[in-house]
Specification:
The protein has helices at residues 13-25, 36-45, 62-71, 90-99, 111-126; strands spanning 5-9, 29-33, 50-54, 81-85, 103-106. With 127 residues, it is of the alpha/beta class. It has a five-stranded parallel beta sheet with strand order 2-1-3-4-5, with helices on both faces. Helix 2 packs parallel to helix 3 (62-71). The longest helix is centred in the C-terminal third of the chain and has 16 residues, at 111-126. It is globular, with a radius of gyration of 13 Å. The termini are close together. The model has no long low-confidence stretch (mean pLDDT 93).
C-alpha cells in the first residue's frame, strides 16, 4: 500500500510540529509550509494526497491557496483539502465551501478527530 503524502501549511510552528508528529506516527509522509506562499510553491512542484491549510496565514490565506488550487491547472487541483481555523461563523464555512475546501475543522480540535477525517478523505486512495 502506498504511503499517503500530506502537506501541512500553518504559520504556528508548535501546531505544525504536533500535526507532523501525529501523522508521521500513523505512517504518513508529511511536508510542512510556514505560510501560504510556501504552500503554493510546494503545491506547484509536487503532488500530494491531502492538503491541510490554516485559514489565517501570512502571505496567502488558506482560502486564497485553495482558490488558486481549484481554479488553476496544477498537480493538486482535485486533492482533498482540510481547512483548520479559529473562525467558526457560518459565513466563513460558506466561503470555504465556495472555494472547494473538502472539510472545515474549527480549532481547537482533537488530533484523533483529525486522523479520522484524514482516513475518511483518503479512503479511496488507500483501499
Amino acid at each position: 500500500m502506498k504511503t499517503a503524502t500530506i502537506l501541512i501549511a500553518d504559520d504556528e510552528g508548535a501546531l505544525r510540529f504536533l500535526l507532523t508528529e501525529t501523522l508521521a506516527d500513523e505512517g504518513y509522509e508529511v511536508q510542512e509550509a510556514a505560510d501560504g506562499q510556501e504552500a503554493l510553491d510546494q503545491l506547484k512542484a509536487k503532488r500530494f494526497d491531502l492538503i491541510i491549510l490554516d485559514y489565517m496565514m501570512p502571505e496567502l490565506t488558506g482560502i486564497e491557496v485553495c482558490e488558486w488550487l481549484r481554479g488553476m491547472e496544477n498537480p493538486n487541483q482535485h486533492t482533498p483539502v482540510i481547512l483548520l481555523t479559529a473562525k467558526a461563523q457560518e459565513k466563513d464555512r460558506e466561503r470555504a465551501r465556495d472555494v472547494g475546501v473538502s472539510r472545515y475543522m474549527v480549532k481547537p480540535f482533537s488530533p484523533l478527530q483529525l486522523l479520522d477525517v484524514i482516513a475518511e478523505l483518503l479512503e479511496p486512495v488507500e483501499s
